[in-house]
Fold:
Amino acid sequence: MRVIIEKNYEFMSKRAAEIIAEQIREKPDSVLGLATGFTPLGTYKELIGMYKKEGLDFSRVTTFNLDEYYPIPSTHPQSYHYYMQKEFFKHININLDHTYILDGLVKDVKAFCRWYEEEIRKAGGIDLQLLGIGRDGHIGFNEPGSSLGSRTRIKTLDAATIKDNARFFGKKEDVPKYAITMGVGTIMDAKRCLLLASGSDKSKVLTKAIEGPITAQVTASILQMHKDLIVIADEKASRDLKNKDYYQHIEKLTEELKTLTIEE
Ligand code: GLP
Structure:
């Protein structure tokens, strides 16, 4: 696990976008796992800027989104379909046929979830999965108690998540009570994971996730077992980390290592 601490949201977003851009430059047909919510908005904005200014090419990229409310039509302004079009896809040269988002109105949920997993597999698996963290420690919509081996399925939302998301829907009663989400196991299958956390209201849960015990009560904590995890937190979100100085020390030395030359 690599923990990078940036001074604010803007720097966190720039750093995340740079990692995603590097992934695409190295492998133009990368498969990206994408997240929604407030946290990745700045990252998408930076990537759009890279497409416009430097021609970062998304034409061969495939994407799979983590989750979607259920039930919700894709035309609903709070659906994750709507979000992805508005905040990212319509601004870049991605082929929309290569963008997969869970269907918020599907009738046969089980068959659909099996199909989604199969499409990820057929695409060669996710190369880089972008993640935010919910205030109850969820990744995707894998609420506390979700099996750490779970696959894509329908989930009942935690009361805390419904309350959190009321800010987008106007009132609590309008927030869908269910979601379809990639499972914790699906996320863990990604070759690399990039977890972002910003703001003081994420500081406690981020500490639990990366420094606490691995528990299904904080599904993000399983990421400690991931073979290639990068966490980028801003100052506020990293406030409660016990090993903050240690992470900063390691990052500094890692940067120095890049310029190290061994004399003949
Ligand atoms: C939702 C999404 C998560 C996201 C979380 C945090 O619950 N399902 O994928 O990480 O919200 O959202 P925010 O980034 O707005 O704090």
Remarks:
- Residues 84 and 260 are 41 Å apart (CA to CA).
